[in-house]
Amino acid sequence: MAPNAKPFPVTISLPASLVREIGRICVTYSLIEWALNRTLYDLLRLTSQEGRLAVRDPAPSDRLDMICDLMKMHDIKLPQFNFGGLKTILSECKTYRDSVAHGVWLREPGTNVIHLRRIHDPTGYDWQNETTDNS
Questions:
Q1: CA 66/CA 115 separation, integer angstroms
Q2: Domain ranges of the chain
Q3: Which end of the chain is flanked by fewer CB atoms within 10 Å, N or C?
Q4: Cβ proximity of 67 and 61 under 8 Å
């Protein structure tokens, strides 16, 4: 979009196929968070209620660090695994999930092209040009 161009209008009327996929992304990411939290709370010997209060809501990569540290403290052998790569993937998953869950959807006038406008992107990726043509 040109610097002086009028922004596309916001829409909440998204195609069912797009809404379904947004839902899948959010539900799948929630499962990842749940598994990390459950593992962390088990290592801390906390109930879910105590864990939510004590641990709060750290980034997934921080949760993975805590899990690894606690496993070492409890003399649980860490598997041979690329934890750095997993942390990168978890951070990207969070960024993408946050994008579709918290972004603003725009519809290009005169077309069926939907644009996703990110509110904030810590990775610096330019999502302004991400589109889907639902014609």
A1: 37
A2: 16-102
A3: C
A4: no
Q: Please tell me whether the overall predicted TM-score, pTM, comes out greater than 0.70 for this model.
A: yes
**In terms of Cα–Cα distance, which of 6, 21, 7 is closest to 99?**
21
pLDDT digits 0-9 by tens, 84-102 = 999 999 999 999 999 999 8
Q: Taking CA 116 as the corner, what is the angle to CA 111 and CA 117, rounded to the nearest 5 degrees?
A: 120
Handedness of CA 93, 99, 102, 108 (dihedral sign): negative
Quick one: which of 122, 76, 78, 74 has its CA closest to 96?
122
Whether 5 has a pLDDT exceeding 90, the answer reads: no
CA pair distance 131, 128, nearest whole angstrom: 8
Other Cβ atoms closer than 10 A to 125: 13
Q: How far is 59 from 33, CA to CA, in rounded Å?
A: 9
Torsion of CA 19, 20, 21, 22, to 10 degrees: 50
Q: What residue has token string 């947004």?
A: 22
What distance in Å separates the CA atoms of residue 15 and residue 134, rounded to the nearest whole number? 7
Scored b (16 or more CB within 10 A) or e, 25-62 reads beeebeebbeebbebbbebeeeeeeebeeebeeeebbe
